[in-house]
Amino acid sequence: MSEKRVQIIIAAHKIYRMPEDEMYLPLHVGAAGKESIGYQRDDEGDNISELNPYFCELTGLYWAWKNLDAEYIGLAHYRRHFSFRPHAKEVWDAVLKESEIENDLGRIKVFVPGKRRYYIETLYSHYAHTHYSSQLDETRKIIKERYPEYLESFDRTVRQRWGYMFNMMIMDRQLFDAYCTWLFDILFELKQRIGEEGLSPFQARYYGRVSEIIFNVWLNKEIQHGTLQAGDVKEIPVIHMEKINWRKKGMAFLKAKYLRKRYSGSF
């Protein structure tokens, strides 16, 4: 593919309205063995499409890493986008356009979604209540063994009460390469050590959830050690293309924390 300045994949598993800006590339994630939906497939070229039931949008991230040629590469979701106008009346008009970030390219190295705050939970306690803490514990062991320079950042990050979530980012290509090399090495090892046996289909998708947290580990370490300056990172709010049932989501959050009822599905 010819090089573009910015290319943002939109992870999707079904036909959905897509932004018209040319920096977006709708990507059919988990396309292996499935009929075409008219989008670029993630089972072409170097890919891990067959792992989509477990890795979720990360099969798209891997495909972008291995197959795209652009100065900046990013990821958004078909129902979740970056936007500088999160309260706009017409949600589709508010989706981020390349013209809105072009002056930042070369100066900003990493664009991240607005912070997601948990207030009464740390990243670790929230994960432990809603999923299985052993998955994060094993991830820590892998980081200690393979990337010990990131261990202090891991321990500090999981105590935060906020994080840059959703596996969304737009990143300078060189940094993107470094991040994906680090991320997938950890996740593939995690799969070897734990796997998905005994987990429900929903809980078996934990690799994407672990990656949400350790993206913050990687970013915090790069800032702390000077690879990135604080001014190299810019937050962009996130908008949802469909209404969220906040009551249902809030009740599930409280039940997980106080009644130890793990999440059983998406919201």
- Helix and strand sequence: EEEHHEEEEHHHEEHHEEH
Average of pLDDT: 93
* Main sheet: strands, sense, barrel: 7 strands, mixed
Helix proportion range: 25-40%
How does this structure look, described?
There is one protein chain. The chain has 267 residues and is an alpha/beta fold. It has a single domain, classed as Alpha-Beta Complex (Spore Coat Polysaccharide Biosynthesis Protein SpsA, Chain A), CATH 3.90.550. Helix content is 36%, strand content 17%. It has eight helices and eleven strands. The strands form three sheets. Strands 3-2-1-4-9-6-10 form a seven-stranded mixed β-sheet. The chain has a two-stranded antiparallel sheet with strand order 5-11. Helix 3 packs across helix 8, helix 4 packs across helix 6 and helix 5 crosses helix 7. The model has no long low-confidence stretch (mean pLDDT 93).
Keywords:
267 residues; single chain; alpha/beta; seven-stranded mixed sheet; two-stranded antiparallel ribbon; 8 helices; Spore Coat Polysaccharide Biosynthesis Protein SpsA, Chain A
